[in-house]
């Protein structure tokens, strides 16, 4: 490129060269602007359907390896169960880890100890020939009241085949149940074991997420008691949490155990259903939480009709 | 006495304003709040009714941006498609308040308000939201409030299974009593139709689509079908992970990023999938706090920290979207060539 300053000869060739370069640049700019649009308008890269995807948004790409069975009107895509090393942030590890959480609560939970999954570090799964699937997990669990965390290693087995059978869990944790709840539990136990003033409550948490301080131990107890059902009902296609204690009433103390009727609402994440259970629960500092009876409450369909409100 | 009266009034107003965004609000309060936002910010806020619910209520969005003579690009955000997820409308309100509070002083927010319009729907499923406020027993309602058909006595369709995006294929139920009932057909619900209609009209202009839910602390990218990948999956993951990092920096909360079938469950007919399918490149679902301890009934004292972190996450996505559009490679190249051309002409002028 020959620019001004290099030669002072004002010959025609120089003029032609500069003008032609200028025009080339101009043409390039015009082409670029037309192709890419105004600089303030985004190039929409990667938009539109995937390769092989039909124009019809509802269609499934041809040639894809999808296992489908037709059930009535809708197609069912079978979940292909992962084996081998699990991605800790993917759902198979998370669902299994939540089952471990339920198990730990049945073993160690109390009105002052309620355990939740904090992190999945690693996991693996394997088929156990014609019997089910076995998971191994490394987890961090957190005790919510004292804020203490513990490292846990767990092994769980989801039985396959016909008939609903509860998963089997083995877990050992370090540091988790070291929170000293003895004093609080003892005080709570002594306060409520005599029949003067039987406790009761409802809608815990309330619609605004609020729990009265005096209701918190009963809330925790409801959560721990729910863990018995959640553990029993869990499989690889479920993820349970307790949504709310609808109500609870304390019954007469029997055999040194505090006794309660609980009505709890469980949230099952995959179906998004709210499932109502009634439980007969006992607790003492020595015996821990026990669930003596469980009763599934049917969903109330007629309850769904519009209320007579003006809004 | 004058001084004490003044301080009483001042502190009540300040308390009201400061406490407003740390409480949940019913539909009439939110409607009144939308009017207040328009009244207080007439230059930048307008509203638009873009559809009707089953029970014939308005579906309203706020359009927020500095006015312009040229057509502007847009960001879409909707909250409350599932009635019981109360933290979502609370976040939409917080988001609106935050951009209105900062656009005059924050140069980046100002720039984005200049170049973009924000279309924000604080409550999409108005009927469901109102129903969830009725009493304690209706608090956990999820779906719309249209009645069942064909002899089914239950109410409601899952609006986030009703969109024309692989409708009815996976993660849905055909039982009208189910919480994931996808409807008699795609867009059977007027609420889903309203969004579809708006997105269809604006599809050339929308750069990013955010739909806000709770709970689980996730950022979900398209698609809900396990065997279909978005063409810009890598970009979506990169931006999503950036948003999660921004969220964590606020209060240390972990949000997991991935497609719904990877990190949660497979599903079809979602609004996020529909947005991606019609060509909106950056389409995300936010699932806000918590991870199950309170679930849908998140305590009011967690509204503020949840909104702060979600705002950081949303801003990450919006900033990326904005900068990609207005600082793109093409623009840089074009600018460079213009500069070069100018230099050439100047030089030739000197030559001659």
UniProtKB/TrEMBL annotation, chain A:
Keywords: Membrane, Protease inhibitor, Repeat, Transmembrane, Transmembrane helix. It holds the Pfam family LXN. Residues 82-181, 200-308 form the Cystatin LXN-type domain. InterPro entries: CYSTATIN_LXN, Cystatin_sf, Latexin. One of its GO terms (cellular component) is extracellular space. GO terms for molecular function: metalloendopeptidase inhibitor activity. Belongs to the protease inhibitor I47 (latexin) family. This is Cystatin LXN-type domain-containing protein. It comes from Oncorhynchus tshawytscha.
From TrEMBL, chain B:
GO terms for biological process: proteolysis. The chain crosses the membrane at residues 326-351. Pfam families: Peptidase_M14 (PF00246). Keywords: Carboxypeptidase, Hydrolase, Membrane, Metal-binding, Metalloprotease, Protease, Transmembrane, Transmembrane helix, Zinc. One of its GO terms (cellular component) is extracellular space. It comes from the Eukaryota. Its cofactor is Zn(2+). PROSITE patterns: CARBOXYPEPT_ZN_1 (PS00132), CARBOXYPEPT_ZN_2 (PS00133), PEPTIDASE_M14 (PS52035). The keyword Disulfide bond does not apply. GO terms for molecular function: metallocarboxypeptidase activity; zinc ion binding. InterPro entries: CARBOXYPEPT_ZN_1, CARBOXYPEPT_ZN_2, Peptidase_M14. Residues 23-321 form the Peptidase M14 domain. The active site is at 287 (proton donor/acceptor). Belongs to the peptidase M14 family. This is Peptidase M14 domain-containing protein. It comes from Oncorhynchus tshawytscha (Chinook salmon). The lineage of its organism: Eukaryota, Metazoa, Chordata, Craniata, Vertebrata. The gene is CPO.
């Amino acid at each position: 490129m020959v620019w001004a300053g290099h030669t002072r000869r004002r010959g025609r060739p120089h003029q032609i060269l500069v003008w032609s370069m200028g025009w080339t640049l101009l043409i390039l700019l015009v082409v670029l602007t037309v192709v890419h649009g105004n600089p303030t308008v985004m190039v929409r890269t990667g938009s539109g359907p995937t390769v092989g995807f039909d124009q019809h948004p509802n269609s499934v790409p041809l040639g894809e390896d999808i296992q489908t069975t037709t059930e009535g009107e809708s197609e069912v895509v079978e979940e292909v169960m992962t084996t081998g090393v699990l991605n800790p942030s993917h759902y198979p590890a998370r669902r299994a880890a939540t089952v471990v959480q339920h198990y730990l609560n049945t073993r160690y939970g109390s009105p002052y100890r309620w355990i939740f999954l904090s992190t999945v570090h690693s996991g693996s799964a394997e088929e156990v020939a014609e019997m089910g699937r076995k998971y191994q997990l490394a987890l961090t669990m957190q005790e919510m009241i004292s804020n203490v965390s513990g490292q846990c290693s767990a092994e769980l087995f989801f039985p396959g085949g016909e008939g609903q059978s509860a998963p089997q869990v083995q877990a050992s944790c370090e540091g988790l149940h070291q929170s000293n709840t003895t004093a609080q539990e003892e005080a709570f136990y002594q306060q409520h074991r005599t029949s003067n003033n039987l406790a009761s409550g409802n809608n815990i948490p309330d619609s605004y997420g609020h729990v009265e301080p005096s209701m918190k131990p009963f809330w925790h107890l409801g959560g721990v008691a729910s863990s018995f059902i959640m553990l029993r009902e869990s499989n690889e296609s479920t993820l349970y949490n307790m949504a709310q204690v609808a109500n609870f009433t304390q019954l007469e103390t029997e055999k040194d155990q505090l006794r309660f009727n609980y009505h709890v609402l469980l949230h099952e994440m995959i179906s998004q259903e709210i499932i109502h259970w009634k439980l007969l629960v006992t607790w003492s500092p020595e015996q821990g939480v026990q669930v003596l009876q469980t009763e599934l409450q049917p969903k109330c369909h007629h309850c769904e009709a519009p209320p007579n409100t003006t809004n | 006495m004058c001084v004490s009266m003044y301080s009483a009034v001042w502190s009540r107003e300040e308390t009201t304003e400061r406490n407003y965004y740390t409480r949940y609000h019913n539909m009439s309060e939110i409607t009144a709040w939308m009017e207040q936002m328009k009244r207080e910010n007439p230059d930048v806020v307008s509203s638009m009714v873009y559809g009707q619910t089953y029970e014939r209520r308005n579906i309203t969005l706020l359009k927020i941006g500095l006015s312009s003579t040229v057509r502007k690009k847009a960001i879409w955000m909707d909250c409350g498609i599932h009635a019981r997820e109360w933290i979502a409308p609370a976040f939409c309100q917080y988001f609106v308040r935050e951009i209105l509070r900062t656009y005059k002083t924050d140069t980046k927010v100002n720039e984005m308000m200049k170049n973009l319009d924000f279309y924000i729907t604080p409550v999409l499923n108005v009927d469901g939201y109102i129903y969830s406020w009725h009493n304690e027993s209706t608090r956990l309602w999820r779906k719309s409030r249209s009645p069942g058909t064909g002899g089914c006595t239950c109410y409601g369709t899952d609006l986030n299974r009703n969109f024309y995006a692989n409708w009815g294929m996976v993660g849905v139920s055909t039982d009208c009593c189910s919480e994931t009932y996808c409807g008699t057909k795609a867009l059977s619900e007027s609420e889903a139709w309203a969004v579809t209609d708006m997105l269809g009209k604006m599809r050339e202009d929308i750069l990013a689509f955010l739909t806000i839910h709770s709970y689980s602390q996730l950022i979900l990218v398209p698609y809900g079908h396990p065997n279909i990948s978005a063409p810009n999956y890598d970009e979506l993951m990169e931006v999503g992970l950036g948003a999660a990092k921004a969220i964590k920096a606020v209060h240390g909360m972990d949000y997991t990023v991935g497609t719904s079938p990877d990190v949660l469950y497979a599903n079809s007919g979602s609004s996020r999938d529909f947005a991606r399918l019609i060509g909106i490149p950056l389409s995300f679902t936010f699932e806000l706090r918590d991870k199950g301890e309170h679930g849908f009934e998140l305590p009011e004292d967690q509204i503020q920290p949840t909104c702060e972190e979600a705002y950081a996450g949303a801003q990450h996505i919006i900033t990326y979207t904005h900068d990609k559009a207005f600082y793109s490679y093409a623009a840089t190249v074009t600018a460079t060539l213009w500069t070069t051309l100018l230099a050439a002409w100047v030089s030739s002028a000197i030559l001659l």
